[in-house]
Amino acid sequence: xxxxxxxxxxxxxxxxxxxxxxxxxxxxxxxxxxxxxxxxxxxxxxxxxxxxxxxxxxxxxxxxxxxxxxxxxxxxxxxxxxxxxxxxxxxxxxxxxxxxxxxxxxxxxxxxxxxxxxxxxxxxxxxxxxxxxxxxxxxxxxxxxxxxxxxxxxxxxxxxxxxxxxxxxxxxxxxxxxxxxxxxxxxxxxxxxxxxxxxxxxxxxxxxxxxxxxxxxxxxxxxxxxxxxxxxxxxxxxxxxxxxxxxxxxxxxxxxxxxxxxxxxxxxxxxxxxxxxxxxxxxxxxxxxxxxxxxxxxxxxxxxxxxxxxxxxxxxxxxxxxxxxxxxxxxxxxxxxx
Length: 338
Ligand SMILES: C[S@@+](CC[C@H](N)C(=O)[O-])C[C@H]1O[C@@H](n2cnc3c(N)ncnc32)[C@H](O)[C@@H]1O
Ligand code: SF4
Hints:
- The chain is an alpha/beta fold.
- The chain is about 35% helix and about 15% strand.
- It has 13 helices and 12 strands.
- The chain is globular, with a radius of gyration of 19 Å.
């Protein structure tokens, strides 16, 4: 989930210009089964079947005047056999490019490759400060190995004398791990990453059938989300302590709001789009699930036709009204708790 887009003027009612930001799911395959991620609750997909075809990727960057490209969706980007070629293509066109990774496959050689390729940012997911907490959430990963890979990336960047990629650690704050936040802040300041970004769970899935295929992630979220926590005061204390540790350490810390501030002001469908590995176009990266809010299919239409089509226009119109699409109501970005 990526939120660093340049805000654009909204052209509500009109068809906005083609977006300058695309988030492209380069693969839907993953080597982990994290407790908060939809990947855990759907059938596994292998590395070749899950990869976006390079032809589709090239078609997209040829058609859309992209300035910023996020190369990840629900899957692990380093599993894509085409990732490096996609990065090189994008960088060659002057596009800012980056992705999130679980960093389990980020060997020193791959870290050096990423630095040399001109990757603009790399966001590494670390949801705990101890093997016990981290490995219970990130099933299949080893804490010490991932912290070693992260340190290797910092070192590779230093040795190359490169200012990029910007290295951010992403921590999804939940009941299971919020107590680890101050210790993680301390650890990351030592490792030398640029930033720690704490985010809440992205969606409550309340728009889905409680007995349907989203049942497990919906129940998980209800039990873990800090915005429904009886003990929000505890989360606040952890946030305050993390901020105290980060102050003056050189580590930038960003904390989310724990209070639902009402919905609105989302600009995604006007200035960005999300494309799944199979070429479905969705309004944003927050939806999770390719059977919700699908606005078009690149195997049948051009991106431009989808962007200018009726489903997109209706989605924009509803999002801009007091009756937003169901899928937006439970979105943490829409509710300003992300
Ligand atoms: C879906 S992952 C894909 C990239 C990569 N596999 C990884 O783990 O970083 C992208 C980001 O979404 C985060 N994420 C996963 N499930 C989430 C949820 N339910 N709410 C908020 N963030 C979530 C992950 O921690 C990660 O930082
Ligand atoms: S959060 Fe990332 S690593 Fe974990 S299951 Fe989802 S896609 Fe895979």
